[in-house]
Amino acid sequence: MTTTVKTDAESGTGAERAPWTPDELTERLRAVSAARYHDRHPFNVRMHEGTLTRAELRRWIANRFHYQRHIPVKDALILAKFDDPALRRGWSRRIRDHDGERPGEGGIERWLRLGEAAGIPRAELWDTSRVLPGVRLAVDGYVNFCRLRPALDAVAASLTELSAPDLMRTRIAAFERHYPWIDTEGLTYFRGRVGQGGRDGQEALGLVRAWARTREEQERAVAALAFKCDVLWSLLDAVSGGAPAGSSCGAFGEAAGAGAGAGAGVGEGDGDA
Ligand SMILES: O=C(O)c1cc(C(=O)O)c2c(n1)C(=O)C(=O)c1cc(C(=O)O)[nH]c1-2
């Protein structure tokens, strides 16, 4: 394969195509997160205010599990793009964080325990019966992005994790204050992610800063992060919308077809905040 490299003058774009410095790139990445990260999504805002019903919170836990279980899958797809043993060693730690070193450990197990603390049997999380159509599409979109795009784009998409630790702290405080019906033991997943998310985000940022040298590569990294913000946002849009009519996939003690806010629970004190 031959690659033709055009100078700025040849491509007719002049100085505007000059690469950003690594710090300028970082600033642009942070600006994308500041504008589009899902901490500002109305569903998260309601979660933090304490106004989600039990049914809504269960719907979120069950649907977010679909995202969680696919994180190590997308990380394995990224791993397969690396030909450097040191890179693979570093990235494979993410898979172990989620899958654990042995049965009964790891992030997926901790999310299953969160589900149990909220009254959702683990079999019901595994069998995907609660997964909403929009959540399936958002998660597929992210996995396929990491499958099909170059390593730079796939790693840049994970940079939402730079914003995740603050969100985890807010979430833990909100759960303890507003949703005491969920045993605090169930929050272990979020507690662990404060440190893991920060570390993973910094590691990915170092790689993106080192790899994205041309303006085209830098713009791809920024676009990848924007795409990932859209994945997380779309997931919450779907969770907010609730179950399609006639389906039980988003419903927890609600009539099928009821949307967000219609959390009149069936015999489980659902309306309390
Ligand atoms: O609960 C959240 O808001 C949240 C957000 C994100 C994120 O920002 O991508 C991740 C997680 N959680 C998470 O638990 C997680 O393991 C994770 C991995 C990744 C990733 O893209 O590699 N993001 C996130």
Write a compact overview of the structure shown:
Its EC number is 1.3.3.11. This protein has 12 helices and no strands.
Describe this structure in words.
- Residues 1-21 are annotated as: Disordered.
- It comes from Streptomyces alboflavus.
- The chain has 273 residues and is mainly α.
- It has a single domain (22-241), classed as Up-down Bundle (Heme Oxygenase, Chain A).
- It has helices at residues 8-11, 22-36, 42-49, 54-79, 85-99, 107-117, 122-126, 133-148, 151-157, 164-178, 188-211, 215-241.
- The longest helix is centred in the last third of the chain and has 27 residues, at 215-241.
- The termini are far apart.
- The chain binds pyrroloquinoline quinone (PQQ).
- Pyrroloquinoline quinone (PQQ) is lined by residues 71, 158, 160-161, 164, 167, 193.
Bound molecules: pyrroloquinoline quinone
Total count of strands? 0
Order of helices and strands: HHHHHHHHHHHH
Distance between the termini: 60 Å
Overall body shape: globular
Low-confidence stretches: 255-273
CATH fold name: Heme Oxygenase, Chain A
CATH homologous superfamily grouping: Heme oxygenase-like
